[in-house]
# Entry
Amino acid sequence: MSLDIESLKSIYYFAGLDNTQLEAIKKYFSEKAVSKGEIILREGEWSDYLFFLITGLVKVYKTSQNGKEQILHIAPPGDSLNDISTFDGGTNQASMLAMSPVTLYSVRKENLNTLLQEHPSIYSNILKALAIRVRRDSNLVEELSSTQVMGRLAKLLLGKYAGEEATVGLWLTQQDMANMIGTCREVVNRSLKVMEENGAIRLKRHRVIVLKRDILSDIAKDTIDTPPNYHQPSTK
# Structure
């Protein structure tokens, strides 16, 4: 199967490469289609490939010994998957699951070394991509340790879904949201109802409609040191 040059351009690692360079490297890649719900990589296992996400969304997560799931990231098209084990030679650091039908480009780790020797300019893109990942993970640790659940949920809605009247829920369930912000589904459900009563969102079947980003922004500013003062949902 012939790989698409435009798709290679969408990958962060290869940003700035011209068509001649992309034509030269595409021989190292293969394409893989993954069905929704299929696990691409399992935490703790070995993989011979570095993957790049071309279409779809991938859930990157870790699972504790007691089975609790923590979502680290929802990878969009252009992201690389399995970078850490690729460069340190260890096992996969996280599991990765297709949240929608997914198209991947993959390169064998041994071929990646050859590719980088032939095109050393790619190294700067890799460093930027890894730096973004370190910053993202550091922010996640900070959020989980210092911000209340309501604030974390508001930041999730603001960060993942830009624009007025944004629809949330096409890919993320309430359980997914809970796994991303370090809580349980029941707490997410109660928090969403509070946000709805405050006019920030509207809840629909399998959907959250973002109505007022300014209200969500106010909620997102609250931390564990400044408890929120929002109306609790009516019990009537």
